[in-house]
Amino acid sequence: MELCEILKYDRSLYPGKAVFYYQTPDSEFVPLQANIARIRGQKVGITEGYNADSTPKNLAPQDLAYANPVIVEECYVPPNISELYCRFSLRVKANSLAPSGCSNVDVFNTLSALATKFKEIDGYQELARRYCKNILLGTWLWRNQYAGATSITVVTSNGSTYVISDIREISWESHWPDEAVKTLNALTDEFLLALTNPSVFWHADIIAKMDVAFCQEVFPSQILITEKQDGVPTKQFAKIKCIDGSEAVSFNSVKIGAAIQSIDDWWQLGSNKRLRVHEYGGDGQIGIAHRRPESENDFYSYFVKADHYLSQLEQIDIKSTAAEIPQSLTYLFAVLIKGGMFQQKRASRVKKKQEA
Q1: What is the C-alpha to C-alpha distance for residues 32 and 19, in angstroms, rounded to an integer?
Q2: Judging by DSSP bridges, how do beta strands 161-164 and 239-241 pair with one another?
Q3: Tell me: the pLDDT tens digits for 104-123?
Q4: Euclidean distance between the first and the last CA atom of the chain, given in angstroms as a whole number
Q5: Cα–Cα distance for residue pair 17/326, rounded to 1 Å
Q6: Contact 289/301 with Cβ under 8 angstroms?
Q7: Per-residue H/E/C for 192-218
Q8: Disulfide check for 263: which of 130, 224, 258, 349 has CB 3.0–4.6 Å away?
Q9: Are 220 and 251 in contact (CB under 8 A)?
Q10: Does the pTM of the predicted model rise above 0.85?
Q11: One Pfam family this chain carries (predicted)?
């Protein structure tokens, strides 16, 4: 199958912003706010003392001891607050069942049929389970998940409530207690239905309650600052404005989505590192791509084989286990759930035909 000139998938997961707040005897929602700090930064970078060729600069003894004034935002739990909350909403739609835009009828039909067969043999089950594990593990709290006891509560639009009382008792690889497994299975069932049934409108309200230490530091999303301005903090946090005009620090929706979709451990056999779903297996921690085109394990290498996957799935008994589904196909649908533009420009396709 060839990529066509117009080919796109709408994303299936729609997380909202995650807001940090705390409670007092007078209010159930008090936004956690950032403060501006003016600090004496130290000159500790290598460029302060060394030239580009690694030779020492000609400096006076005092030059590296001078302070470098810096204005930044910081965020700490207020005194006398022992519990901190972080809350966001998540909508799930069945958008991976077919392209939202496609300029080739044959390609559209192939991809739609592939999704139908993938659904029939419960291929979506594994994906739904992995997304739910990240939700219940509090992966979306990022650096804030390594605090005290943290409970996760999920309230769905079906009227169900799911609770993990302490995320420290479970991990991705560990054996989960029976009650936690029951919670995971039930949430996965709801998530799966929304992921595979276009007529279902499903959303969930997810709340983390964290036991915090006295004036503990909190780590919201940071805003990318492209230009420095006098008197403006060089480090700023993402915020959301409340109806009373106050601002609560938050995670942006992209950061929440990235955590939920950190499920790709198929990039290498036996890998215990889960990457955020990415067409080329981008690993931001070490700055490389694990799914490079020359290795033929990237999304596009699999995507053009959609017709072959369809033929393969048609040979699988619907009653068979999901273990028979190729991991490459499960990864392929994880990318389709993420959504994006997958078309190929006309000039590129013409050039390929000429080279052939």
Answers
A1: 8
A2: unpaired
A3: 999 999 999 999 999 999 99
A4: 15
A5: 34
A6: no
A7: HHHHHCCCCCEEEEEEEEEECCCCCEC
A8: 130
A9: yes
A10: yes
A11: Cas_Csy3
